[in-house]
């Protein structure tokens, strides 16, 4: 690597890391809030949410890495172009292809990383996420009662409390509905309660104070009991059975497993579904080496039309590619299209656009079809603003 290569890579490194980190943290925070809301009734929700967030990292890395890399390249090339560094390099005999070479090498390395993420990390982390979520939703009752929630440890027991301490052990204004072993309903209310787990950990004692209990005798007649102190023992419910084994969904299979099952047919998942998933992952990883071919010309064209149009146009192209690949996977899954054609066509179209834009920019850097469209849009916007300003002036 020459000094120019190291300089160009160093310029792109921190913007890419910053864009990836900020986007990843934002997506994880948004998802974490939704998970906290989903698991609000679980007393161990913070532990489950932490495990779920860790298992979401490979999924969001696969989403953010291409976009962050593309955005970093446009910003770096535009910054160098604005400071005339690109003009100096071109005047010194460095071609546009040589200028993009280190970024192409970096993109190849990121494509290899993406293959590992898409092909192996995501399938295992997706299954682990579903397993943890299944455990959290079916974890039963561990003896703690969150405040202002309706807790249903089992089909025969329902509890509510208006207030509870941070540990979920000191309760206020408690309501308990229980179906006894002989099938009779029992309603208990209390002003205060203390939760204590037994030594064996299998039961919970509720030390109720200042309450009443409504129950029915053997003849079905109601009985009302008022008490100052009352102890009730309730069983702790264990977790439900574990989630099914990995591989029930094509997204839980690695690249090798997808290829093997598609070839052998030893699976209940349709072959077109397996191939659509396989080709989709390969397309998302192999699109990375194409991004410098599009980002470098757009960054050069931004000198006249501004950075925003290039980012918008490039972002729309990348977004359209991902949605087209997802649509192709859906068509392959339903059997309406050939998987190779449905997923390969968006990749070929995107690759063609990137190559045409880069080749057309080699002769006159910054002069691309997309750049000319961006300049036309910027000109029309400027004329519209001038027209509005002229109409706003008093006669």
Q: How is this structure best described in words?
A:
This protein is α+β, with helices and mostly antiparallel strands. It has ten helices and six strands; from the N terminus they run H-H-H-H-E-E-E-E-E-E-H-H-H-H-H-H. It has two domains: 3-137 and 245-392, no CATH class; 149-235, no CATH class.
List the helices and strands and how they pair.
Elements: H1 3-38, H2 45-82, H3 85-91, H4 96-137, E1 149-154, E2 157-164, E3 170-179, E4 185-197, E5 203-216, E6 222-235, H5 255-264, H6 271-286, H7 291-305, H8 307-333, H9 339-363, H10 369-392
Antiparallel strand pairs: 1-2, 2-3, 3-4, 4-5, 5-6
Integer average pLDDT = 83
Beta percentage is 15-25%
The shape, in one word, is elongated
In this structure, how is the largest beta sheet organized? 6 strands, antiparallel
- Helicity level: 55-70%
Oligomer: single chain
- How many structural domains? 2
For the terminal residues, how far apart are their CA atoms? 65 Å
Keywords summarizing the entry:
single chain, 395 residues, alpha+beta, 2 domains, 6-stranded antiparallel beta sheet, 6 strands, 61% helix
What's a concise summary of this model?
With 395 residues, this protein is of the alpha+beta class.
